[in-house]
Amino acid sequence: MPTIGARSISFTFALITLSLALPLFAQTAAVPPAPPDATLYNSYVPSVGYQNITWFVCGSTQTTEGCYASGTLGPFGTAGAMIEGNASANLTTGTVTRAIYLVDTATGSAGNGVTLYVYKQVETVTSSTVTVTITLTRTVPLPLVGGSSSLCSIAANNLFLFIGTDQSPYVLRVQKGNLAMAQFGGFEPPMNVSSVTSDKYGFVTATFGGFTSSQNGFIQFAPNGNSGGGGGGAWFMLNTMEGISTSTLPPSTINPAEWMVVRPKIQAQP
Questions:
Q1: Exposed (0-12), middle (13-18) or buried (19+): which is 247, by Cβ within 10 Å?
Q2: Shared domain check, 114 and 42
Q3: H or E element: which one contains 25?
Q4: Which residue of 18, 54, 75, 197 pairs with 45 in a disulfide if CB–CB is 3.0 to 4.6 A?
Q5: What is the pLDDT of residues 23-43, one digit of tens each?
Q6: Domain end marker among 101, 129, 144
Q7: What value, to the nearest 5°, has the Cα angle with vertex 14 and ends 11 and 17?
Q8: Closest to 195 (Cα-Cα) out of 216, 214, 175
């Protein structure tokens, strides 16, 4: 009996020790290191007429602060829209690489062509310096109509860009990896793209129709790029990083309550 009692005490002590150790382990779990450019940021300045875009990289390192590099993108017909891609970091070399996408809405002999420019930005960060290079890697004509005064809209998620202009009745889905394109639209009567918006999870909404037209519509996309449906009404999305000026969006001509429907998912057949 004394032996059994000793074992019980030892077993109880082990459980108490383990229970005390678990919170300590949770508190001391490794925190992922910050990327080398966590204290740096890009800024952009358009020229008069939007023929050029000047870029700056500013912020701080471990021992210095200020603006470390600048340069110019262009010339363009009209720089209509821009967006950055997700960054990838190499902690060993202190480098960070990202894409910068720019849509020129006034290319070609007629001045109303639309072209996508893809730039590659590489930052090398040390304790005191930052070296930056931005190089043009791809130039891709887009099957859209633009013009120097056209309104271009762009949004993105991890896999795709979504681009449209207020002179074209289609929104383009452009795959980031290989720049493969697909068109979405086809409303009757035709309605041009008025905005492209996204949320923080990667859902995207393309809105069609004008401010004075009697009709408008929308198409929504899932994070994997698939179209999630659409119809009448001027829908848009919000995210947690940048607000939308609602004065740039057309008013809806459809009662939103008509879309309040819940239905079972369609199950794949075996």
A1: exposed
A2: yes
A3: helix 2-27
A4: 54
A5: 545 556 688 899 999 999 999
A6: 144
A7: 155
A8: 216
